[in-house]
C-alpha cells in the first residue's frame, strides 16, 4: 500500500489565527497517522511561482490522506485556516518504486 501525502503551499495573512489552526488540526492528524515531512522552513523557488510557506504531510496510505481531509474535525480546522491564509493543497499517492 502506497503512502499518501498532502503538499500544501500557503501565504499566511494572520499568524495568530493560523496558530489556532495548527492547534485544531492536531487531533485529526493524529487519528489518521499524519507525520510532517516539511513544515515551513527555508525554501528557494528557482522556477515558476510558489507561495511563501510549504508543508508536506505523510500519511500511512493514500486512503488515509483523503479520509483525513474529508473528516469533519479537519474540515472545522480548515475553516479556521482559510480565515488566516491563502493556499493550495494537493493530495498525492506516494511512489513505491
Could you give the topology of this structure?
Layout: E1 4-12, H1 15-24, H2 26-31, E2 35-39, E3 53-59, H3 62-70, H4 72-84, E4 85-93
Antiparallel strand pairs: 1-3, 1-4, 2-3
Helix pairs in contact: 1-4
Key terms for this structure?
single chain, about 100 residues, alpha+beta, 4-stranded antiparallel β-sheet, 4 strands, about 40% helix, about 30% strand, globular
Describe this structure in words.
With 97 residues, this protein is an alpha+beta fold. It has helices at residues 15-24, 26-31, 62-70, 72-84; strands spanning 4-12, 35-39, 53-59, 85-93. It has a four-stranded antiparallel β-sheet with strand order 2-3-1-4. Helix 1 (15-24) runs antiparallel to helix 4. The N and C termini lie close together (12 Å).
Characterize the quaternary organization of these chains: single chain
Individual helix count = 4
Strand percentage: 25-35%
Global mean pLDDT:
96
**How many runs of DSSP E, i.e. beta strands?**
4
Following the backbone from N to C, one meets helices and strands in this order, namely EHHEEHHE
Low-confidence stretches at least 5 residues in length (pLDDT < 50)?
A: none
Characterize the overall form: globular
Can you give me a brief rundown of this structure?
The chain is α+β, with helices and mostly antiparallel strands and 97 residues long. It contains four helices and four strands.
Amino acid at each position: 500500500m502506497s503512502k499518501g501525502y498532502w503538499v500544501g503551499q500557503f501565504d499566511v495573512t494572520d499568524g495568530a489565527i493560523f496558530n489556532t489552526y495548527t492547534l485544531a488540526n492536531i487531533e485529526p492528524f493524529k487519528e489518521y497517522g499524519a507525520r510532517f515531512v516539511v513544515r515551513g522552513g527555508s525554501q528557494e523557488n528557482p522556477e515558476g511561482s510558489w507561495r511563501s510557506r510549504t508543508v508536506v504531510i505523510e500519511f500511512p496510505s493514500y486512503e488515509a490522506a483523503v479520509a483525513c481531509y474529508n473528516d469533519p474535525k479537519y474540515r472545522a480546522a480548515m475553516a479556521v485556516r482559510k480565515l488566516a491564509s491563502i493556499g493550495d493543497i494537493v493530495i498525492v499517492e506516494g511512489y513505491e518504486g
